[in-house]
Design brief:
This is Calponin-homology (CH) domain-containing protein. It comes from Meloidogyne incognita. InterPro entries: Actinin_actin-bd_CS, CH_dom, CH_dom_sf. This protein is mainly alpha-helical. It folds into 2 domains: 141 residues, Actin-binding Protein, T-fimbrin, domain 1 (Orthogonal Bundle), CATH 1.10.418.10; 39 residues, no CATH class. Helices cover 73% and strands 0% of the residues. It is built from 7 helices and no strands. It starts with a helix and ends in a 5-residue tail after the last helix.
C-alpha cells in the first residue's frame, strides 16, 4: 500500500513537471509565432504604404490612431474612407471604427475586434485584423486573377469549338493570340 502511495505521488510530480515544461514551451512557441507574424505583417503593410511614402515601425503602435489603417484600406480598395484629424482617443476610435465598418460593408467577417482593441494596441487582435485584410484583399486578388484567366481560356475554347472545330488550341499566350486573330478574321472578315 505504501509503495503504491509513493509511486502515485512520484508519478504526479513527474506529470506536474511535464505539464509545467509543456506550458513554458507552448508560451515560448506562441511568442515566437507572434513575433514572426508581426514582422511579416509589418513588411506587408509597409509594402503597400510605401506608395504613400509612409512606413510602420511597430505594427501594434502605429495602427493605433487608425490613420495608417485608413491609408492601407484606401490603397487596397481604391475607395476613400472618412477620417478624423484630431489626436484624442475619441478621434482614434472613430478612425478605426471607420475601417471596421468599411470592412463589414464589404462582407468581411471580423470576429471580436472592436475599435478600442486596436487603439489600445492589442497585439493578438491587431494581427487578426491585418490577417483578415490580407486574406480578403491579397489572397482574393490572386483567386480573382486565376478565375479571370480560366474564364478567358474557357471563352477561347468555346469560340474555337463553335467557329472552327479543326483548329486546336495549345495553352500559350501566343497560340491564343493567333487563334483569336483567326477567329476574329472568320467572324468579321473585313477586320483582318
Amino acid at each position: 500500500m505504501q509503495k503504491n502511495v509513493l509511486h502515485s505521488s512520484y508519478a504526479e510530480a513527474i506529470e506536474s513537471e511535464c505539464l509545467e515544461h509543456y506550458e513554458i514551451n507552448l508560451e515560448r512557441y506562441k511568442d515566437e509565432r507572434d513575433a514572426i507574424q508581426k514582422k511579416t505583417f509589418t513588411k506587408w503593410v509597409n509594402q503597400h504604404l510605401s506608395k504613400t511614402n509612409k512606413t510602420v515601425e511597430d505594427l501594434f503602435f502605429d495602427l493605433r490612431d487608425g490613420r495608417n489603417l485608413i491609408d492601407l484600406l484606401e490603397l487596397l480598395s481604391a475607395e476613400n474612407l472618412s477620417r478624423e484629424n484630431g489626436r484624442t482617443r475619441f478621434h482614434r476610435i472613430q478612425n478605426v471604427q471607420s475601417c471596421l465598418e468599411f470592412l463589414r460593408r464589404r462582407n468581411i467577417r471580423l470576429v471580436n475586434i472592436r475599435p478600442e482593441d486596436i487603439v489600445d494596441g492589442n497585439g493578438k487582435l491587431t494581427l487578426g485584423l491585418i490577417w483578415t485584410i490580407i486574406l480578403n484583399f491579397q489572397v482574393s486578388a490572386v483567386i480573382n486573377y486565376q478565375q479571370k484567366a480560366q474564364r478567358r481560356q474557357d471563352i477561347t475554347v468555346h469560340i474555337s469549338a463553335t467557329t472552327s472545330p479543326n483548329n486546336k488550341i495549345i495553352n500559350s499566350q501566343h497560340d491564343e493570340g493567333v487563334h483569336y486573330s483567326q477567329t476574329t478574321s472568320r467572324l468579321v472578315g473585313y477586320l483582318i
